[in-house]
Amino acid sequence: MDDHALAAALAEQAGSLLLDIRGQGGAEGDRQSNELLLRLLAQARPDDAVLSEESADDPVRLTRGRVWIIDPLDGTREYGEPPRDDWAVHVALAVNGTPTAGAVGLPAAGLVLHTGEPPALAAPTSGPVRLAVSRTRPPACVDQLVARLDAALVPMGSAGAKAMAVVRGDVDVYAHSGGQYEWDSAAPVAVAHAAGLHTSRLDGGPLRYNEPNAYLPDLLICRPELADTVLRALHDA
User: Fold this and answer.
1) pLDDT per residue over 22-34, tens digit each?
2) Which of 76, 104, 162, 178 would give a disulfide with 139, using CB separation of 3.0 to 4.6 Å?
3) Rg of the chain's alpha carbons, rounded to an integer?
4) Torsions phi, psi for 83 (to 5 deg)
5) What is the dihedral of CA 205, 166, 223, 191, to 10 degrees?
6) How far is residue 144's CA from residue 68's CA, in Å, rounded to a whole number?
7) Cα angle vertex 190, ends 224, 94, to 5°?
8) Where are the beta strands (DSSP E) in the chain?
């Protein structure tokens, strides 16, 4: 099984588990999904390192060229509010700092989007730019984009759900500022990039993974034809 297929299979298996135990709550979902993913990765790729939101950071990862970056349950709040489907499972492989394979499972929606079979880029739509935004904690960059692009806000839950909404054509832009970690974006970025979307930091710089500090505070995923417009809106005086 190649890395793309493995990422997809892991996201699907973790998602199935999470659906089965959803009534036990988010903390238990985090724990059991993490245990499953770590066990399966140890079996399938014993020489690779792992960086997980739910495990202590092992500095050995900094000596490895291949590091799996996982978020066993992205959107714990939404997971704990059945029947919401805007939560996700993230599984990505970073090779020398670049996410080369990845999968984002949306278990409650019955979907796994992955780099082995990248989704086709949806056709552009008319009307205002649609901006995915947190339903509880909108980041600071949102006000700037709304003011300069006259964007329409589309509230939803987890980072993975918002990123995949761009991939699926439900929104046009997902911009985040104010704090994330590598596991929040590695898999979504891998899938979005494979699907032909623009992926970068908010300043247009590259997203780098398996850094000594896993804090990666900002992110832009958007339709390619909007990238220059969005970056100007973020940075023009």
Assistant:
1) 999 999 999 999 9
2) 178
3) 17
4) -100, 30
5) 60
6) 34
7) 140
8) 49-52, 66-74, 88-95, 98-106, 111-114, 130-134, 152-156, 173-176, 198-200, 219-222
Q: What is the pTM of this model?
A: 0.95
Going from the C-alpha of 223 to that of each of 60, 75, 231, the distances in angstroms are 36, 23, 12
35: exposed, middle or buried (Cβ count in 10 Å: 0-12, 13-18, 19+): middle
DSSP states of 200-212: E-TTSPPP--S-S
Strand duo 130-134 + 152-156: pairing: parallel
Cα torsion 39, 41, 46, 49 to 10°: value is: -110
pLDDT, tens digit, 9 for 90 and up, residues 100-158: 999 999 999 999 999 999 999 888 888 899 999 987 666 778 888 888 888 999 999 89
- Binding residues for Mg(2+), by number, are 53, 71, 73-74, 184
CATH 3.30.540.10, domain 3-114, yes or no = yes
For the chain, the distance separating the N- and C-terminal CA atoms, rounded to the nearest angstrom, is 50
- What are the extents of the domains in the chain? 3-114, 130-235
Q: Quick one: DSSP state of residue 185?
A: H
Binding site, annotated residues? 53, 71, 73-74, 184
Residue 158 is classified by DSSP as -
CA atoms within 13 A on the CB side of 166: 32
CB-based burial label for 82 (10 Å; 0-12, 13-18, 19+)? exposed
Structure tokens, 92: 């990505």
CATH number of this structure's domain 130-235, picked from the four choices 3.30.1490.20, 3.40.190.80, 1.10.3660.10, 3.40.50.410: 3.40.190.80
